[in-house]
Amino acid sequence: MRLPVVLFFTFGLLAARAVEPLAIDIDLALQKAFLLQDGKVVYESPISSGRPGHLTPTGNFQVLEKDENHLSSLYGRIVGENGKTLVRDADADMSVPKGAKFVQAPMKHFLRFDGATGMHSGYLPGYPASHGCVRMPEVKAELFYSIAEVGTPVRVHGTPPATTPAEKPKAAATPAATPAPTPPPHKWWWQMIQHTPPR
Length: 199
Hints:
The chain has a domain at 20-72 and 107-155: L,D-transpeptidase catalytic domain-like (Beta Barrel), CATH 2.40.440. It has helices at 2-18, 138-147, 188-195, and strands at residues 22-27, 32-37, 40-46, 59-62, 65-79, 85-91, 101-114, 117-121, 134-136, 153-157. The protein has three helices and ten strands.
């Protein structure tokens, strides 16, 4: 009578073990995101988190929504009639010149985890530069998107590096020509000593 119960319990444990719990860990200090399976890192990606004034929120969250072709309702660019970008880093509250339009920023492979904040494909300049979202290279964002599900835990922690955009290197100054060494003074007695034969 006990054997079926033990077998059922053992089978239940094995079945639960077969589907390892997934989680996403975002380390703002390292500027990296990790996909964890049963607490172990299986994938990692560089990120660009929120810049000063638009910091990525920290805490424990979960994936609230998945949207493969998400468009930002808050940020984008203003484009003129001729298709040229007039304002590259625009927000929806900015006034748009006549004939121009506000174009929503694409956020492919969007995993929302807190309000309007989520993870998505985007440009990584090498420092925190977003409006709060976590940008990832497209290949990595697609990978995280394909594996994570609604409800997957997301932990965001750490202090982002206090970095600013890299300055363009200044033109190197032309080094001054090295002056020729000053010859020793030619004194009449020095030449006499040089040419005087030894005694």
